[in-house]
Amino acid sequence: MKLIRMDTVDSTNEVAKALIAEGAKPWTVVVAAKQVEGRGRHGRRWASPRGGLYFTVANHEVLERLPLVSLSAGITIADVLDREGVVSTLEWPNDVFVGSAKIAGVLTEGLTRPPVYWGIIGIGVNSNSRRSEFPRVLREQVTTIRRELGREVDNDALLKALLQTFKENYPSRGNEVDLLERYRKRCGTINQKIAVKTPGGVIRGRAVDISPAGFLIIEREDEGCVEVAEGTVMDVA
Ligand code: BTN
Fold it and tell me: Model-level pTM greater than 0.90?
């Protein structure tokens, strides 16, 4: 594993892509103290004030496995938060919440650099950032580890724990069933009536399970089940 530390970047996912273009090795990790164009899923912004933890893991992958890799990143964050004493739940696919406030998120992207396909897994944790540094509209919707524990955490130690746990949780032949079982236990979306905004439109129904590939299975009224590969859970109906 090669760890590259930076101070201010646009987005660690973008830095990782540039490093891949320059011939990076698998398990290259980029961590930054601050992002000025931090990105969230579906084109949203990810507020990245100083104090938070922002990093990206770039690894050789196969396209079909990315959803599972992404779920394992979510499990990893929840596992590490548990050990810090912060109880969280995952909202499919990998938004990490404490109650109704978001504490961490994962942005997974893929990149082809023939003959290799890369998984780019960006993880943002609101660790020591302060809510007052977030855009006003977000302040009530986010929380931080500092706020939950009433003290700061060591971002370096947190990064080390996250990387080690991510390696342990990383999908590899044989651990997928266990991984999915652990994900299901942590996922607050399952058994909820939900509306999911997908690229093909809004799907409403009851989230019933996660498929072996990591997709959300939604049971629609009178229309049977549908598997959703990507989307945003909008609300609990
Ligand atoms: C989300 O919840 O929408 C995903 C947030 C992912 C944020 C991380 S921070 C490190 C990496 N760089 C980015 O620009 N985004 C991800």
Answer: yes
